[in-house]
Design brief:
The chain is mainly α. The chain has a three-stranded antiparallel β-sheet. A two-stranded parallel ribbon has the order 1-2. It has a two-stranded antiparallel ribbon with strand order 5-6. The structure holds glutamic acid (GLU).
Length: about 500
Amino acid sequence: MNHSDIRTRYAPSPTGYLHVGGLRTALYNYLFARHHSGKLILRVEDTDRTRLVEGAVENFIDVFHWLGIEFDESPKIGGPYGPYVQSERLDLYSVKIRELAASGFAYPCFCSSETLDKMRADQEALKRPPMYDKRCRKLSKSEADEKIASGSPHVWRMKVPDHETIHIHDLIRGDVQFESHTIDDQVLLKSDGYPTYHLANVVDDHEMRISHVIRGEEWLPSTPKHVLLYRFFGWAPPQFAHLPLLLNPDRSKMSKLSGDVAVEAYREKGILPETLLNFVALLGWHPQDEREFFTLEELVKEFSLERVNKAGAVFDMQKLRWMNGEYIAKKSSDDIWESVCALLPEELESVATERVRFAVESLRAGAETCADIRDKVGEAYSAQGDIPEFSEQQFAFLNSTLEGFAHIETPLWNRFEEIGAKFKEIANASGKANALQGKQLWMTLRLALTGREHGPELAKLVAMWGREETMNRLSAALSARTASERAS
Ligand code: GLU
């Protein structure tokens, strides 16, 4: 096969947010296509009308854009094999079902949902896997035609051969076999005229010239049905690669119920797109060497399906955070500001931007996510906690410090490094005058300014706050004491 003939697709159903497993599938399809100078297609599989979520497609597109994953053909940009949304391709599926009916590979089924429910219940009572008992296969062509002509509601099912071993060569799992008697006569076209996933998926992969189907392991049981459909149509199937499951650290399956599975949630937490791509790339794939850090371009260069494991991949949140911390540490101030800025709370809008930027830069060290930085910044600006009772000596010290502050020229408050030094100088001098020093001095000031025992370096806080806020806090601490004195 010519490299440029390689075409992969990511085919999500628009049922809500983008799952990290979905991202992994999309990423591997992207990496494989780009590695081989092929094309990546985004196809929306929206034939299950009951599960549609408004805005889901726009959300996918937005998230992929944020991550820097570009599609070559998609509902948004179009392409030679569109439309790329299955609900806009219904005519094609009905043509295809007629072809299968004519060649005897599909048959109409008139069983009502009550009949099917009873069939399932009876099978379950006998501890058998629930499967269609193929009763409508027995109808003669004229009987079936007559029912259709009289308007009987019906679906179309595929005629799975009775006794056959179906072989699949999977690029990751090797040879996999399925016995045809375990495969259901799958519904291909529903009574509402919509195809099921199986029919639409196979027709579209063929029509869109998909060369490699790379998808999660949960689709492996569907693959024999697909392989049969390719045969029924007389088409060469694409190559298949089923990716290992994603697991929680306790090795249970990572599902909607356990922890955060939505990519959007990681975005909101301040995980950087490059971290997420790097981390997700390593969920099931490993490079030739021990390297752990890869840019998207490096991943494109290194990626191959041969190095995707069969065993489930554990999603380790600690590792994701650690990795993000490493990425954050290497970021320029401008980049960090841009990422954190989007997360900042509204309350900070009234603070001068340069001050908040200074706060971000002062507090970024050691942060594992941009949300951590946001929280630290929020804390630095948060209101004073309870002010303790100060002794006579502390009170005098704080008073003379406030006095000292009042004499600082306004422009100095805006020179962040210098104001810190000046602040220390004043505090030390006031301390000396009041026989306060070292830890006692700084703790007194910290309690007065923040009402808390811990927090960022005071000199930096003062620079983050500026003149008005610093003076206000100190005055508030002093007046708390004055008020309580007055009351007694
Ligand atoms: N629409 C399916 C999904 O939601 C696609 C499965 C496949 O890739 O064939 O994942």
